[in-house]
What we know:
The complex is a heterodimer of chains A (about 240) and B (about 775).
Chain A: H1 22-27, H2 36-39, E1 65-66, E2 69-70, H3 71-78, E3 88-94, H4 97-108, H5 114-128, E4 133-136, H6 141-147, H7 151-158, E5 167-169, H8 180-184, E6 190-192, E7 203-211, H9 215-226, E8 231-239
Parallel strand pairs in A: 3-8, 4-7, 7-8
Antiparallel strand pairs in A: 1-2, 5-6
Helix pairs in contact in A: 5-7
Chain B: H1 7-23, H2 25-40, H3 45-66, E1 78-84, E2 89-91, E3 94-101, E4 104-111, H4 115-121, E5 129-138, H5 151-156, E6 162-174, H6 179-197, H7 203-211, H8 219-227, H9 238-254, H10 259-276, H11 281-296, H12 305-319, H13 327-341, H14 343-349, H15 355-375, E7 377-379, H16 382-410, H17 415-437, E8 443-445, H18 451-471, H19 476-495, E9 500-504, E10 513-516, E11 523-526, H20 548-559, E12 565-570, H21 575-578, H22 581-587, E13 590-596, E14 598-599, H23 603-614, E15 618-622, E16 627-630, E17 633-639, E18 644-645, E19 653-658, E20 661-665, H24 671-680, E21 688-690, H25 702-708, E22 712-715, H26 728-736, E23 740-743, H27 744-747, E24 750-755, E25 758-763
Parallel strand pairs in B: 4-6, 11-12, 12-13, 13-15, 14-18, 20-21, 21-22, 22-23
Antiparallel strand pairs in B: 1-3, 1-5, 2-3, 3-4, 5-6, 7-8, 9-10, 9-24, 10-11, 16-17, 17-19, 19-20, 24-25
Helix pairs in contact in B: 1-2, 1-3, 1-12, 2-3, 6-7, 8-17, 9-10, 9-11, 10-11, 11-12, 12-13, 13-15, 15-16, 15-18, 16-17, 18-19, 20-22
InterPro entries (chain A): ComF/GntX_DNA_util-trans (IPR051910), PRTase-like (IPR029057), PRTase_dom (IPR000836)
Protein name (chain A): ComF family protein
Pfam family, one (chain A): Pribosyltran
Amino acid sequence: MQLFIKEYCLYCDGEIAPQIDWGSFFLGPEKKLLCESCKNRFERINGATCRICCRPMEQIAEQFQHDDLCNDCLRWESNRKWKHVLNQNSSLFVYNDFMAEVIARFKYRGDYLLVQYIAEQIKPLIVKHSFDYLVPIPLSKERLYERGFNQAEAIGKAAGFHTTNLLTRVHTEKQSKKTRAERMDLEQIFRIASQSPAIDGKYILLIDDIYTTGSTLRHAAYVLKAAGAARVQSVTVARG
Amino acid sequence: MPIFYGIFAYLSFTVLLGFLSFYDFSLGLISLISFCHLLHYRLPRNRIYLLIVSFSFWLLLFKLNLSPVPISVPETDVHETIRFIEYPVFDGNKMSANVNINGRKIAVSYWLNSKTEKDHLRTISYPGVICSVNGNYEIPSQQRNPNAFNYRQFLLTEKIYYTMTIHEMKECHIGKRTFLDYLLIIRENSIAEVNRVFPTHIAPFINALLFGEDRGMEEEDQAAYQSLGLSHLLAISGLHVSILSVSLFFLLLRFGFTKEFARNFLLFVLPLYAVFAGMSPSVNRAVFMSWCVLFLSKWKDTFLPIDALGFSFLFFILRNPAIIYHVGFQLSYLVTACLLLSSAILKKHARYLTSSVLIALLAQLASLPVILFHFYEFSLVSCLMNIIFVPLYSFIILPLCIVMFIIILIMPSLIDFFANLLMKIVELANSITNWISHFDLFTITLGKPPVFLFIFYFFTIIVLFFVIEKYWLQKKGLLFLLLFTPIIFQLLFVKWSPFGEVTFIDVGQGDSILIRLPFNQGNYLIDTGGNISYTQEEWEEQANPYDPGEKIVLPLLKSRGITHLDKLILTHGDMDHIGSAKTIIEKLPIKQLLVGDTIHKKAFELEIIALANKKNIEVIHVYEGLKWAKGKYDFHILAPRLMDEADNDASIVIYAIVAGKRWLFTGDLEEAGEKQLIEKYPQLRVDILKVGHHGSNTSTTAPFLSKIKPKAAIISVGERNRYGHPHQEILDRLQENTIDIYRTDKNGAVSYSFFLNKGRFSTVID
């Protein structure tokens, strides 16, 4: 006998235990996408982080911390070409094993519904920023054709924002096959899209699924800054 | 078709909205609309429609069931056959019980004629006994004073519409007893056994905990527990039932029974336990709810506890809509619902405070408006006391009581050790409560919140819980604001109300007049009412004889948030004016006591003066010519003359200017006194006259009336009094002079409430 309407977890397919509390009784139930135990496996970034890349300081050994910067960012910032290119990155979750699975499922295996939960979570983070354009990191045509959707754009749209494709990408090999040095010295992989609106003096917020070395975001920021953007920040779901 | 979680909780909430609309339609409708508006963002439209339909259904149900319909005047002097369904209560020479007459539940009372009759009637095992009686049907008395106990409403909560006074008990015989009757007999015998084994100050506690039986409990203990917000411990509550069921469940498992068996056994035993526990609303609720949860647990899709709670709530409301007036019912559902809704808060934050502390705090907060609405005050230490006493009762005293009772049944020889232990603990608990309840400091009397404020309290409490759930204690400023705004409103609207009043309290035959100046500038009470007591034999004396001061005047004062009197004025020494003065002096701080400066006072008046001296109350002997003023309110004493002989004509007479009106309060002034008054003060004109001596024809003479020319007259007189007051010729005389007449016997309390110089009369009974 099924007396009550059940909800199921988008990730593990388990039953979501119903809960009625003050908020859900008087404001109506929130649509629950994940069960509590799956939700708890997301590890939120809390506490002190690197001022620029949002890496949790607790992950960095003492000798690699330089005031409020991590060693990585210090190196980026001490390079004349890359100084002040990416003003700041904010990330939501720690890139743990679970996060890797989630991103894999959503990105590579096309579990598009999972984006709803991620979008719901990242929305407040996006709202915190002031920006003129929310710009997803683009995929190359070939990759987009393979995958069917741009994960960064999907997150931004699912969170209820208008995204602007200011950039296009020149097809290269997958990032994940490259070393850090290769990534840093990459020739330009982004171009300003034809027919893009005026960028001069604008505030740009880049959106992507994951920040690993920051090279992708910095390359995108570099192109935008070169086109006259006043400030380029970024939000990502995970910080690798 | 599957339904959504919370449906029963939502339907129950619409019951509350329906009831509110029944009380105050616009307020109820606004609440419904805001509720639906909040929900419509996330709930599908058809569920909103369901809520509205359900709301309309409940509103209709309350309209049909609770509206005061003119009840047909019942027959008198009838011969009936009554069937006892419970044991009667014997109090002095009064026996009262709820009985069954032709399938209807009737509250009967019978005045016993002799001690032998009482002794005989006490030996009967009543349930199932059938008696033929002669008596009069009566309509239960309605509320006669603002905020007074409403007996008619109380009986409605038990589905009783009529009372009967029995003149004559004829023969009785044992009818066909039902299973329930036998259970009640076993219960009564068990109670008697506990009473036999334990001393009288301990037995009632055990009986209360085991059988939900509060008879025989010391008034003082009961008052102490109530004033500290602990009385729920002495009633059988949900906590109680869950402790019992859970321990029984595990005991059965321990003895090797299957879970299935344990469950079925509990399903069978719980209803029986409800009978043993006295079947009060809180017992029924707790048992039925546990029963629902247990019963439905068989299916994999279990009910949420809040749905089980809602389901039982709907069940009880459908069975008898008037149950919603029951204080215990209100509190037990309110607190349980709030705690269930707070499960997220408790789960998340129970580590900061231990969960029992948090539960006590949340329960305290949730019950505050209802406590204020019914008891007009709350205790600051109540929360702390609950934190200590709930575990004490749940985990020590209650289990001990159960063990004790089992021991009595199987090994009476072992009893002493446990009995002593239990006695020590209960005595300790009681001495702590009695000691703490004597600190008036902890009791905050705020008065009765008006309906709009009552709803506002709930509104802020819901938001408060919501904020706590969402932000825990981060938004301290907001939490303080939410907590104190309604209390500040209550202080401004009730305790320091800008409205003043002159209320002629219906104390039966007698006088008691409250003058309350705006902004708490002055509270004056002229006379206290009082019962004329007769000498009684010991067996006839009731444990708590009726005292209008205790039952009417004090609750009225408390409901207005009045915690002290500036002046208590005793016009003269008759019992119907000062009979309850001792009660008032004992229970309420008083600044000044005004008595007439007369000689040869009666003994009772002297006793009161002595008591006042003992309590360090300033006693002023007043006589004509004295006066006092408070702001623009003037009070002049026109009588008695210095050293008058104490009697009716030496009553204190007060001429007052209140709300721009001229008032004359005459006590029991009679012809001679009136003559003196108009001779001494030929210019005396008044707007409102308190008619002298309850409308007796010895007062309110024609020359007096034609001289002072009142526009309105109030007669403070008891319904069906033995003196025939008010006399018809007085009523005629007042009418001839085109004076508006208000009578407390017909109108109940008569109140003149005013704001600045504008005011109007209102009566409790139209």
